[in-house]
Each structure stands twice: as C-alpha cells, then as structure tokens.
Design a protein that fits this description.
The chain has 392 residues and is α/β, with parallel strands linked by helices. It has helices at 15-28, 41-49, 69-87, 119-128, 131-150, 159-169, 182-185, 194-200, 221-235, 260-269, 286-291, 307-314, 325-331, 343-354, 357-371, 376-389, and strands at 2-7, 33-39, 58-62, 91-94, 107-110, 153-156, 174-175, 207-211, 240-244, 275-277, 295-298, 319-322, 335-338. Helices cover 46% and strands 15% of the residues.
Length: 392
Amino acid sequence: MIHLFLDASAASSGSGPTYVRNVVPHLAARTHVRATILVSPPLRREFLDRSFQDPSNVSFVEFAESDSAAARFVRAQRRIPELVRSSGANVLLSAGNMALFRSPVPQILLSGNALYTSNDFFRDLIQRGDYGLWLDTKLKGQIAKWSVRAADCTIAPSAAFAEEIYRWTGVRVRAVHHGFDRNLFFRDTTSRPAELAQKLRRANDELRLLFVSHYNYYRNFETLIRSLPLLRKLIEPRPVRLFLTCRLEPGENPGSYRTEAAARLVRELGVGPNLMELGAVPYHLLHHVYRACDLYVTPAYVETFAHPLVEAMASGLPVIASDLRVHREVCGDAALYFKTFSPESLAETVSRIAHSAELIREMSEQGLKRSRDFSWKDHVDHLISIAEELPR
C-alpha cells in the first residue's frame, strides 16, 4: 500500500486551501492509499467544522504557522523529515513550492507560484516602489528553483506553467490540471446569510461583473477599475456594478500588498458607486455569489491555473479573461480574451457580451461543458500514479 505524506502546512490563503479541501476527500476515497495530511490549525478546524469524518486511511497532523517564510522554511527542513518518518509514509507530496532538501522518502513537488518567473510582477513592484516585496520574492524564488531541482518529480497545474518552469530551471516538469468538484462546490443549499443576501440583492437591471480574489498586485485590479468608467459609457443607460470578494482597505487582505493606490484610483475615477466590496466569502458560500452575477472577469497578468475560472464556468457565467496562455488553456473557446493591461480592450469585450443575449447563452453553455473537463478525482488518480512510479 502506498502511503502519501501531503505537506500542506503552507496552505493559508488563495488556491492553497482550495487544493486541500478538494484533494483530501478524494484521497480518503482510495482504500488502497493511506494519507497523512500536514496542515495549519485553522485549516484543520475547517475540516472539523465541516464535520469531515476522518476515515481510517487518512490522518491529520497540525503544524503551526511561523511568523515569516524564512522561519517556516528553516523549521520545515528540520521538523518535517521527522514527521514523515514517524508517519511511516513512503512518498512525500510537498505542496508549498518548497521541497525538503533531504527528504527521507521520494518527493513530489507541487509547484504553483508563477510570480517567481514573472517579469511583469517584478516590473510592477519596482513601479510601486515595493522594494521589500521585490527582494522577498527574489529570495523565495531562488529557494523555489532549488526545490524543483531537489525534488524527484515536480508537478505544475498547467502545461503553460510547466513550460515556464522548464525554461527557468532546465528541469522537465509534468503538467496535471487541478480539478473541480461540483458536488462539493454546490452542496451547501442553505439560505445565504442575511448580510450577504443584502449585498447581493438585485435592485435594477444592472450588469453585474464578478472578480473572485483577495487584493494583490498580480491580479491587476487597477486595470479592472480603470475599465469601469469606459464600460459605463459603452452600455449606458444600463448601470454596471463590479463585485469583489475583498476590501480595498489596509489590513483586510492576506500578505503585504498595499491597497491604498487601488482605493485612491476608485475615488479619482468616481467609480465607488459601481463597486461592491463583499470582503472574504467562505468557500462554501461562493456559489451564491457566482449565481448572483452576470459575467466573470479576470484581469490577472500572471497565473498558474486560476480555480475561479472553472467555478465561474460551472456556475454558468460567461468568462472574460486577460489574454494569458494559462487562461486559454483552462477556458479554451468558452471565454473571450482582452489585452492584459488595456482597460479599453477589457471594457469593449465586456460591452460586446453585454449587448448580445445570444452570445451570453452560447458562452454559458460552452463554459458549463468545459468545466466538466476538470476533475479532482482525475487529478488525484494522476498523483497516485506518479507516486507509484517513483523508486522506493
């Protein structure tokens, strides 16, 4: 029997928790597999809150979060090998972009951070004067590069990102798409909480755009904000509103990203009435938000997979995405694409869809069909198959 040790201790925000939430139930369903899952206490509590009954083949180990990435890295290199040995696991899955440099068992690295290879991101940081984050990302990127070279096998969530890692490190990387579980995503059928329901209440025939992300620089919020006054003119007299699952306020988002410039841009352009800042929405309630909106928009200038694209397609929302290889790989013909840093191109693309009920219907149908191509079951099957190939 193969025994996997999944180090998900760094899964604290964004796609990390989404990955763990979806992968663990599918590991639990494999009776020929044992799994030990290393998670932070908050994520472990989430499984308890969901009344997830730990099956006999899955066990959890809690690993408290460190104050800094450097402290976490040093602590992980010292402590995790001991945990792997004591668990009896024979394959390690490292899910935090950082590998153990002296793994006691064969190691699969799950690489999912494209910032380390993004010239656009480093240019953005220089323009913003965020030199501390520039240096921090460079240092983490060097560790990530060493990690790819130290692992027995590295897996990327898209072919586009796998090719980028190869250009960066010279190491061949395998692409295994992340999945989507309709039953898990739509299973909460309870009514929306009153506060969320009030924010989502539709008072008129406004065009509702949705962008699911906490605030960060690489999701390119500013291009989206700049498109709003242009879009207002293109679709008038119909009103437009953009729903965000974050708040553009200091201290309201994970990480060190500063929201002041985006908030100032909202004031300067006078688009505050066109924004609804929902704040962080729990994963089990997200489907309510998707279904309360008309179109999904992402202006991100770097991605590795982008789970919300699949969630939006599965919810029947037409997708408008920046023209990235990853976005085209995930959505194919089920989305329309615009020039990444062009608010004019974004506004024109949204307007094109907003004026065509037939295009909305066609894109919704194509998106629903495309979303069925992503399966967490298939993802876990690939992981297990790769793990079984490794010499032990």
